[in-house]
Design brief:
about 35% helix, alpha+beta, nine-stranded antiparallel sheet, single chain
Length: about 240
């Protein structure tokens, strides 16, 4: 299990910054939304700054756990990005797709803060955007990676493994929209663990939660519930 931890930590970075379905700068509207709900929400959207996001993450308890902010998560020079850059992917395109996901907030002017639970079982992240279009577009990411990289061979830290992605529809209380991905890690012909990544939109914010150790699916979803409520209260 110790040998597989670097790879699991690498993919855990996906939950810290959300996913992207395309170039954010090209998708942003020029003052008018595509639908009436978006148009109504946009004037009221308030982008949360880094200090506010840190306060939400470290003041919220979920499933009996508190969280500690991880400095530098979601940035281009983060440890997750460095690990991916030094890894081999097959198909090769999945390396770029994964890097795009980790760097999505940089391209979309989002402010991201991430944290890990005190028992090192869960990771959580919140990204706040200028308007609701940011998280809405990023919610397309899980289906993209599941479609184009459903089965990936990965070599990292001297370990060869296979990853399989599948989407699911999580139910997160209070969320405007949700998306989910299950990543299965196989090494030496055996499933090492399953990582569930839950994404939940709250107005112009995106909450993302994943497990980095084996836990029940409900633990990930209920943790997302808690952070969605905290973001709503902060807004």
């Amino acid at each position: 299990m110790k040998r597989i931890l670097p790879a699991i930590a690498l993919i855990a970075g996906l939950s810290l910054t959300g996913c992207t379905g395309g170039d954010q700068s090209a998708d942003k509207p020029d003052g008018s939304g595509d639908s009436s709900p978006t148009a109504e929400q946009t004037p009221e959207a308030k982008k949360l700054d880094e200090a506010q996001l840190k306060d939400i993450l470290e003041s919220t308890s979920a499933e009996g756990q508190s969280f500690k902010v991880v400095e530098g998560a979601g940035q281009a020079n983060s440890e997750s990005v460095k690990a991916i850059e030094g890894s081999e992917f097959e198909p090769a395109k999945c390396k770029n797709i994964t890097l795009d996901i980790l760097n999505a907030n940089l391209a979309s002017d989002g402010t991201t803060v991430a944290a890990t639970s005190t028992d090192n079982v869960l990771s959580a992240g919140i990204t706040s955007f200028d308007d609701p279009e940011g998280p809405q577009t990023q919610l397309d990411g899980p289906s993209k990676i599941a479609e184009e990289c459903s089965d990936v061979k990965l070599k990292t830290a001297g370990l060869e493994m296979t990853m399989n992605y599948q989407t699911f529809d999580p139910e997160v209380a209070g969320a405007d929209a949700t998306a989910g991905v299950v990543a299965s890690f196989d090494a030496a012909g055996q499933t090492a663990m399953e990582m569930r990544m839950v994404y939940a939109q709250v107005d112009n914010n995106l909450v993302s939660v994943s497990n980095v150790a084996d836990v029940e699916e409900a633990t990930v979803t209920k943790t997302a519930d808690a952070f969605v409520e905290a973001v709503k209260n902060a807004g």
